[in-house]
Amino acid sequence: MAYTVSRASRNNHIILQRLQSFSIKQAYPFQFIVLLVAILILEIIVGLVGYIKKNEVEVMLEKNLNSTMHSYYNNPEIRKSWDITQHEAECCGVKGPKDWTVITKNDSLPHTCCPDTPDDGTCTTHLNHYKVSCLEKMKTLFNRYGAIIGGVGVGIGAAQLIGVLFATCLARSIRKEYETV
């Protein structure tokens, strides 16, 4: 009799262990699904806010470009940023080269406004200089690459959605296995 009680107790213990392992196996896919859906929802919210606030970003960009332009000759870091921007984007000033004439009070421009800077390093409005505004160049870049970034975001979202579907299938499979035990 003691042997049967001991054996029944051991069998109950084994059954409880299997039930616990199945409930843990069920919990992991569900937690993964919840986490993935939460991240997907956050990505959608950020994308929508970015799209809705697009015009505010352009206004902020123009404001910051104007404010840093006035510190060009006083701050070496700002000067370096402007020089890199104007050289790489082949542009001059926020709205054009005339912006610099307001700051310099004459017709001189930063050397990066001229594609072919003379030997003395001067650049003026009388020389061959970039006529495109940096603000317009940046807007063009944002519009061009914004679509690419949006497409990548949609692709990542689709991959996450597929992950949710696979995790749901896995959870259902584990639940069916649990029900047959």
Automatic annotation (TrEMBL):
Name of the molecule in the record: Tetraspanin
Q: What are the protein's UniProt keywords?
A: Disulfide bond, Membrane, Transmembrane, Transmembrane helix
- Native source species: Acanthoscelides obtectus (Bean weevil)
- Keyword RNA-binding listed? The answer is no
For this protein, the parts annotated as crossing the membrane are 28-52, 145-171
Q: Which Pfam families match?
A: Tetraspanin
Give the location in the cell: Membrane
Q: Where on the tree of life does the source sit, at the highest rank?
A: Eukaryota
Give GO cellular component annotations, separated by semicolons: plasma membrane
Q: What is its main location?
A: membrane
Which family, according to UniProt? Belongs to the tetraspanin (TM4SF) family.
Q: Which cysteines bridge via disulfide bonds? A: C92-C113
